[in-house]
Specification:
Layout: H1 2-5, H2 8-33, H3 35-44, H4 51-68, H5 72-90, H6 104-119, H7 126-146
Helix pairs in contact: 2-3, 2-4, 2-6, 4-5, 5-6
């Protein structure tokens, strides 16, 4: 199992890359190429038109943040929340929980984002480069205070 533990940083990087690409490819059209169609779809799903812009910004910029590994936990929580709303309002997870084929993709995205939010970006990320030293410093000073 220690061999797999050594791959944890790579696995988190690949998870972030995959999720980031998916969210960017879904967010960009909402903002720039298919905004009107997306608005019509959102209205049919019972959501206000302006939610297209909220979803587009979350998906496009959240995807970029996931790829570079910056503010990963915050971006992941927001994207997981967006997917939870999509599961509820668009894909009808509460209406027909047995129709897994209707909501398996957004459920996977939601749970993967939730996992990233709890685990963090990993060592191969800007989060680690920018905030990694501060976190370890804070842990060291707490341990000194206990002594």
């Amino acid at each position: 199992m220690q061999g797999l533990e050594k791959l944890k940083s790579l696995a988190l990087l690949l998870l972030r890359l995959g999720l980031g690409i998916i969210f960017i490819t879904h967010g960009y059209p909402k903002l720039f190429t298919h905004t009107q169609q997306a608005m019509q779809f959102f209205v049919k799903a019972g959501l206000p038109e302006y939610f297209v812009y909220i979803a587009g910004v979350l998906e496009l910029f959240g995807g970029i943040l996931l790829i570079v590994g910056l503010f990963t936990r915050i971006a992941s929580v927001l994207l997981a929340g967006e997917m939870a709303i999509a599961l509820w309002k668009v894909h009808g997870i509460l209406r027909d929980p047995m129709a897994v084929n209707q909501y398996e993709f957004p459920l996977s995205l939601c749970l993967a984002c939730f996992a990233l939010a709890t685990i963090g970006a990993g060592l191969i990320s800007l989060d680690h480069v920018i905030f990694g030293q501060q976190r370890s410093f804070a842990k060291k000073s707490k341990s000194r205070d206990k002594d």
